[in-house]
Amino acid sequence: MKLLSIESTCDETAAAVVEDGRQVLSSVIHSQVAEHRTYGGVVPEIASRRHIEHITEVTELALTQGGTTLPEVDAVAVTAAPGLIGAVLVGVSFAKGLALAADKPLVPVHHIRGHVAANYISHPELEPPFLCLIVSGGHSHIVQVEDYTSYRILGRTRDDAAGEAFDKAARSVGLPYPGGVELDRISGRGDPERYPLPTPHTEGRYDFSFSGLKTAVINLAHNAAQKGEALCPEDLAASFCSKVSGILWDKLSAAARDTGAKRIAIAGGVSANSWLRRRAAEGCREAGWELYLPELPLCGDNAAMIGSQGYYELLAGNRAGMELNGRPYMEIDLSF
After folding, report:
1. Of 15, 148, 154, 247, which is most buried by a Cβ count within 10 Å?
2. What is the distance, to the nearest Å, from the Cα of residue 78 to the centroid of all Cα atoms in its chain?
3. pTM over cut 0.85
4. pLDDT (tens digit, 9 = 90+) per residue, 149-183?
């Protein structure tokens, strides 16, 4: 079964053709990073306009590279939530038009479920149930993936997401957008013990809080500037990456021990962070757990992961009509 999938929740316009939820026949992404770097972050209005300009060509190229045509695919999947609402609506409106014109089922997909499904592509042997840490620019969750379309939230961020904290910390030391990638890049040359950073505490055992940690880094940079002192960006990057990856792993491993999980997955843009990947690999090896990480190209936003999850949503009977609307917010355990 082949699905044409569309993703446009932030600053990547993406389309893919995925077969049976695991085999990627094509994956095309038009990134807006270079343009948004000028502003230090994503400008929603610009993102929406660029999606409109590129979504047709990206989709046509995905079909061509996938060796198929719109009449030959079995369904059209689209990310319908959560995300920048103007950007989401571009993809939803376009997918609705395709589905209507070709008389194909329209499959709405939750963006974060898509990130989880990236692991199905990288690891064809992976099947639920398993425990998953989802960390991205807008989300930080620990969920039990009970089935392909059934999730139970164990923990979540109570303020900022890990990815946002990375970007803001990077900006404070003069690194360009996307800050998390740049912070990780220079951290390998730094001393993680140079700048002691606080460990935020939360009421929920598996919940996260990154606002105070982000503020601590910003204050550190501001105080140094006011005193005319020089900060070492590499050391601060290493200190921050070490602290955040430690927090994420400590919460995830606690959830794994308490639930008896033996299979652990990580998903989302921050799953590309080298400190988190090393920390998780070491921890799982010591505990005897199986670890599943997406391949690096599948960590960020892409349509292949949406096609993978869309396949399982379609099998579960989750389809939408022309009344489908985009949503800026939606929990992963809810269905459209």
Report:
1. 15
2. 16
3. yes
4. 999 999 999 998 888 899 888 988 889 888 889 99
